[in-house]
């Protein structure tokens, strides 16, 4: 449809009252189409795909056998707007669109933008785009795959501990000729709701990279900074010499056993760690002749039991009821206690090593692949591809844009994305209000805060647990306090693991069976002795060295 000058439709917006509502809606629609049409015709728009028409004949589905996911031209839920839909779960997908004209990223500002809606959420899968190099780099559309050479990979990815908006630049080292993947450090996390979101990457001539979500800046980076990119685009000037070898007489031991030290005469290495507690006495009432378990008197042999096939039938065991009212049953033995004469194996104390030279490392030599760089040398973009492996269906791509003007990209967001998002947001708020059943303001404030906390990357695989608890708290306000406490415990536990690391010592399983009554001190002593033994063994081993963030 061809649109005349946009000013043509403005009188419809101010016409008389009797038909204002109908004509206003029609005029707004025409105005939106007009502006988008004019934007598309602008030289600032290098590529635009709205998926208003079917992708058949325009986009090429990979014929590689492993990419058997079915793409569909489908409407976004609740809208008349169409997009490119991932229709099946647990499949690999690959589809590509060749650009009419190759796009250079080296000429001023360049904006990469597209919409994606995770209609069924995203637990494990990607929803990113690949901006591909010309086919001279060694690929053809019908065989598009994860091996096809790209310049930039951009977009959401979530699975397990991974939850980020990728930005990966493949840059050619002019010295080695090798293409190296450079990843954005500390990328923003993926929104965890099911709304339509628009992702924008802005590449500026001053090497600045901006990542926006729904028009809001989430990350600002310098492409040439080693703080922002891993590995850095500019390699180190020097590298460790791969041919350098550590001298045989190089001593890296900071401390050594004292050669003049001698074992004390009273040091008994053979003394056991534990001995029987001679002061312990058998609790009164202990039944030595009663077993801890007896055959279940009520059990009967099954009618279909065949001894020749199933073996001799034995009644299942149950706890001996006679042992319930006494300190314990079975043979009583004295508990063990720490041996005061135990010293363990003797080792000479450590002293400063007079021959210590420090930790050896190879000498540095000039890096043969080092080069200077004032600005990345981006490879041109000749196609846009989607190559993903996802466990979820319902991923809808729409309004893919490459432009050389940030204002043009913003206009597309306001005309193509914002109206849909506003409708979805209002619907979400209505559903939340209905499901909350009167969720109070303070509860809502706490949950909103926790949704933001859930976006912190360090939660890793625990993030899904936190989101599940938040959803339960929203649906059942009476569970809010319990859910909040559980979430705090999870976050605190993860935090401690990050700081201290290590594994928790497993408790020692008690071998004896005795009821914990005031008279059952012996059983308790047995368990304490067993636990103490475990701790002493550890000590002996060391002896030689003495949603998601919810949108508002």
List the helices and strands and how they pair.
Layout: H1 20-41, E1 45-49, E2 60-61, E3 71-75, E4 82-86, E5 91-103, E6 110-118, E7 124-126, E8 129-132, E9 150-159, E10 162-172, E11 179-184, E12 196-203, E13 208-213, E14 216-222, E15 229-230, E16 238-240, E17 255-257, E18 274-276, E19 293-295, H2 307-310, E20 317-319, E21 336-338, E22 350-352, E23 364-366, E24 381-390, E25 395-403, H3 406-436, H4 441-453, H5 463-475, H6 480-500, H7 521-541
Antiparallel strand pairs: 1-25, 2-5, 3-4, 4-25, 5-24, 6-12, 6-25, 7-9, 8-9, 8-24, 9-10, 10-11, 11-15, 12-13, 13-14, 16-23, 17-22, 18-21, 19-20
Helix pairs in contact: 1-3, 4-5, 5-6
Describe what you observe in this structure.
Among the domains are: 47-241 and 374-421, Jelly Rolls (Sandwich); 428-496, no CATH class. Strands 2, 5, 7, 8, 9, 10, 11, 15 and 24 form a 9-stranded antiparallel sheet that branches. Strands 1, 3, 4, 6, 12, 13, 14 and 25 form an 8-stranded antiparallel sheet that branches. It has a two-stranded antiparallel ribbon with strand order 16-23. The chain has 7 helices and 25 strands. 23% of the residues lie in helices and 25% in strands. By secondary structure, the protein is of the alpha+beta class.
